[in-house]
Specification:
Shape: elongated
Distance between the termini: 110 Å
Structural class: alpha/beta
Oligomer: single chain
Strand order of the largest sheet: 2-3-11-18-15-12-14-13
Radius of gyration: 41 Å
Largest sheet: 8 strands, mixed
Length: 1459
Amino acid sequence: MLTSWRQLSRRLPIVTRQQSTDLPDLALLVLSPYFVQSSGTGLSHTDAKRRMEEDFRRNAERPLFAELAASAPEDLPHVYSSSTGQGNILSQSGKKFILPVETTRHVESYYEEIVVPPAKKVPPRATERLIPVDELDDLAKRSFPGYSSLNRMQSIIYPTAYGSNENMLGKTDVAMLTILRVLNQHRTQSKLESLPASIRREDFKIIYVAPMKALAAEIVRKFAKRLQWLGIRVRELTGDMQLTKGEIAETQIIVTTPEKWDVVTRKPTGEGEIASKLKLLIIDEVHLLNEERGAVIETIVARTLRQVESSQSVIRIVGLSATLPNYIDVADFLSVSRQTGLFYFDSSFRPVPLEQHFIGVKGKPGSLQSKMNLDLVTFEKVSELVRAGHQVMVFVHARKETVKAALALREAASKEDMLDNFSCQDHPNYGHFRHELSASRNKEMKQLFDDGFGIHHAGMLRADRNMMEKMFNARAIKVLCCTATLAWGVNLPAHAVVIKGTQVYDDSKGSFVDLSILDVLQVFGRAGRPGLETSGEGYICTTDDKLQHYLDAVTSQNPIESQFVKGMVDAMNAEVSLGTVATVHDAVRWLGYTYLFVRMRKAPLMYGIPYDYVQNDPLLNSKRDRLVLAAAASLVEARMIDHDKDSGSFTITDLGRIAAKYYIRHRSIEIFNRELRTQMTEADVLSMVSLSTEFDQVQVRENETKELAQLLDLAPCSVKVGKVNVLLQGYISWALVEDFALISDMHYVAQNAGRIIRALLEIAISKKWANTSAVLMGMSKAIEKHLWPFEQPLKQFNLKQSVFYELGRWADDYPVSELVQMSPAELGDLVHLNPIHGQAILNAAKQFPAIQVSYSLRPLGSDVLRINTCVRSAFTWSSKHGSVEPFWLWVEDHEGKVILQLSHLLLRPSTDVLDVTFLISIPDGQIPPFVIIRSVFERWMGAEDEVKVSFDDLVMPVRPNCHTPRLNLPFLSHSTLQDNVFFGELFAAKLRNLNAIQTQAFWSTVNTSSNALICAPTGSGKSTLGHILTCQTLARIPMQGYVLIVAPRRSIVMEWMSDLRGVLAAMGFSMSVVTGSSTLAPARRKEIRLTTSAHLLAALSEKDLAQSYPGLQLVILENLEQLDPYYELAVSSLRRTLQTQPTRVVGFSASLNDSADLATWLDVAPSAFHSFQPSDREQSLNVVAHTFAIPHSAALFKAMARPASATILSIGPGPAIVFVPSRSQCSSVALDLIVNCTLETGSETGYLSPDVSPEFLQPYLHRLRDRGLSDFLSKGVGLFHPDLHKQDRATILELYAERIIRVLVVAREACWTLPVRAAAVVVMGTQYFTVDEDGARRQLREYTLEELVHMQGRAVRHGDMGHFHLFCQAEDKDTYMRFLEGGLPLESRLLGSDQLRQWYKHHRERGHIRNKQEGVQALSWTFLARRAVSNPTYYDCKGTRDECLSRIVDELDGWFDRG
């Protein structure tokens, strides 16, 4: 406490009223009652002194405790500060922290200077000791080579950093120790392995978020060198860099920037999968929260904290920072424990104490006077330092300025006759260095060296920069003028650093901005030479209007505030896109993880919140709610999300998803909504991109107008919007630009325009705009290749300029496809060059990507056409193509406006053929004249082609009119089975009444002898009718006989076995699965034989075509909608042999779109033909289609996980089945479902019933062969796919049947063997990949419609509502819904099949088919013969049926003759 005027006057200089505004707030508080008034009235100096002493005496006489004491400050054990209390002292206003008391201020005629002294050292505590390296374990010990002990700061943080997983806030020393902690936790316990070999590198990832790209490279080098002995890989991931899957897999530490990590974690796959293995997130320079980029740091921290909460994973967060004013707030934001993880070290812990000088030069900013004063003060300070024997680094902010600054200093020294002070000619190695410089071509560097000056910037040759660094380090240079790259990238300290000026050109803003505090701190960090000097000095010379700004920021006077509100709208869109925010409630919770929330509670007035508001609502729920709703309203207006105000749910739109993926601002999306059209030119695209808000700061400066006018004259496209458009066209055209700021602007514009155009391309594709998509593809490649779409595409190859010139002159109108057909000589003649040049052109033309496209038309009904497309590679693969060549293939309408369907494909060197299927609608039978198949390669300008698909000969089938109306009949009971009372009683246990469809079809199916066909929805009881018919038939025959059940799959056969086993045993009938000769052998008793269509065909092939089969009473054909070549040939052959005997044939099928030909083929009587539509299903089934515009990828399944989980939770406690494309995706989808369930419900047990205890599950889990299933089952999710052990499948089905687990994730290929149903069935995607046996060909396939109908049937439950949710591509929705609601198409698959060829060959060889006529006669029994008449285009059939069959026989004979 100050007790006398003398003590006060020592600390605070006496000031006038005018000067008082510059004093710290505490000084104003003390002196304000005693100031001399500027008007001359008030107290004199003597009176003021007397009054102050009286006040001090009165205060000393007051009681020590006049009222209740305020609560004591929180004890923070790891705060080390030389100032009073915990950390810095707040001013009376509470808005800023005060400067150290010894701070002085000097005012000169042309500048003002504030000097902040070094902080006093914090004395060691009694508990402190330096930890010897010998006490560390092997991993830590060997990571500190050359150290005898950890330094003081490392010793303080070591127990927490290396001995725990606590989140931490501290200095840079924390980073390495926490990294070593992760490595130590991921080691095997084997003592036989060496230490590096014991690290499980594939189990973890460490992310280091550096503030700048330049620093990222330095950190990569530092960590790579430090951890090289452990074999740890460190990689940089910044800017437009991408890491391949292989690179990600082999990298353990990734150094990135906040913006890049935000982009990466927005991706659910690829680079985004890094987050799933993340164990440590280090955020360097966390005080950037106070700057515009701080919103990004808040976003990534909030996302990480929510990931930790939702996935229950352990991700350690470590914040590194310079001295923070309100470090407690930042610690709370990072979820750092104040008692164990918060480490605060003030500036006294610097290796070398730093004296800071803040200089504000007078004069209007930017004026000549201000610049002159800046030069004067810079020279004054540099000369003082040099005269004192110190080295100085002068930092400027442009490469050219380094030379200018050095020359200005040399000239000023010469005028003042002080050059001898700067000269280093007496240095012992001066001659040696002078000789080294003679090899350099940098004239300025040579000239300046003679007088003791040096220059350094990124534009210099690496050898020259190394030379400057070596000379400065050897003290052969006294003053080094450099740019900030030296501070970031090279550890080259000096006694003093001087920052000359604080105006820096920012290409992202297109203007000069203030030098960032981060740069200032980095430069000041170079002041002082550890181990060589005991002090350092840092000078920042700025304009007087910026003096207070830098003083406050560098000395941490102002609390760090949140900047999140500015970026909240776009950040929330990213979370909605990622699926982590799905409702208003989610968004409010998400805001609770931000630094904004921490500061709103701590300093509500700063954010417009009254104090009483906080008292009434301590968690600020209402405020957060308003912020969320305001952000949601902005996103809805931009059409980026849909907001259901009743439920509060958010749904991402294609626009929102694309904006999040490409980091596009919502304000830009609003502009694109206005400007993007179905038909656009290149000029339109350039104008639209130029309007993007990403370029708002790119403004025209006076000194640029002449050069911009020159660029405008060269622009090939008309310019509607100014500077950005001109620069972008100049960039594409390789235009030369001289002004350095304009060069920066051009690269900034090009870099961002490329990203924006890629986003616009996805938007256009999602809207199915053919013309705009093609134009945007061209412009995207134009920016990437510096090549206009109208230029010669062979410019993408390394040919001579003379060749390009002659190509443009003589062959500009020749497409590459024509050039590739010529010989070298012809090409040489064409371009007026020799054959050698012609060969070079030919080689390039052959390597230019091209494909050959063939197609066939396959109508699937009266209004749906399938176009089967075959794509063949038609170019020579070379190293220029890399490992893959991606391209788009789409079908567009005849006007070229609308994309009807599209596919994104990959060509590989081993690719021979790609098969692609397109389904397009032909509404109301209005056949267009043609459509166009367009191909566009992604990476090659001009590599595109189109194929016209004529519909002149297209014949679409007539609209069917064969569906049976479902009658409103009273349901028949089991008593209807009157032929056998015992038989009726047996079925009474299975059903009480027949349903509507069974009732309507019962009489003609069971009580007549004519052939019958029942087509009805899945789950409508068709098989039950078959069971009744089978038993009734056997019961009615007097002696031996058999019924043959034929099914396309063994799983269906086994299902029949399971259903009939009990009934048949009670009735005394036998049942068996048959193959080979026993399939059609005479029966010795009453029996049921079950077989597959393939086995039946094999059995029939061994028989004579005219042979009869006595005892065969009934043939039941199950699941005829799955009619494949085996099935069709088996049924055709059987029907042909049964034409002379009274065997009855009854077929069952799912609902078909057109079943008339199937009935005719089976010779079904009209009275026994029942064809019901899917809508006739008696059970309630809610069918919903969800569309997605994301191509088939892991990203698609991440996007589907949230709505799938919401669907499961929406049905209450009912069971659910989730179908995924392959067994490899079961685990990842199950994990995503569990994470989303946890996010939605907050439950740690996932989908497991809350009344199921872990102890109850243990007996089941112990039975598992695959222990990895336990984690899923304990969360209520089971997996079901063919690779599971039989015992595990049985255990999972048992748990599901008993309702212990709720969710089954089932692989597509297992859908036929799945024996259970569910309240909800979710089909996650309708595409899957197939891979050839040699792995060379990877093909994307569509689910068959039969598979989808079968999956849908799993949601049909008797007596309960079912829900079927189909997640599919947007363009496929209408087709799928058309067939799910209207019935499946059924066509013959015989034509061109191997089965038909083998069948024909077999019968030719056995003499069953001896000539062409017999071949035609044999085929006339097939379903193909019927459909060739009804749907001739599908089978390329022209003429009559017999003519078509004759052509097929000719092809088969030709194949047979060729052997």
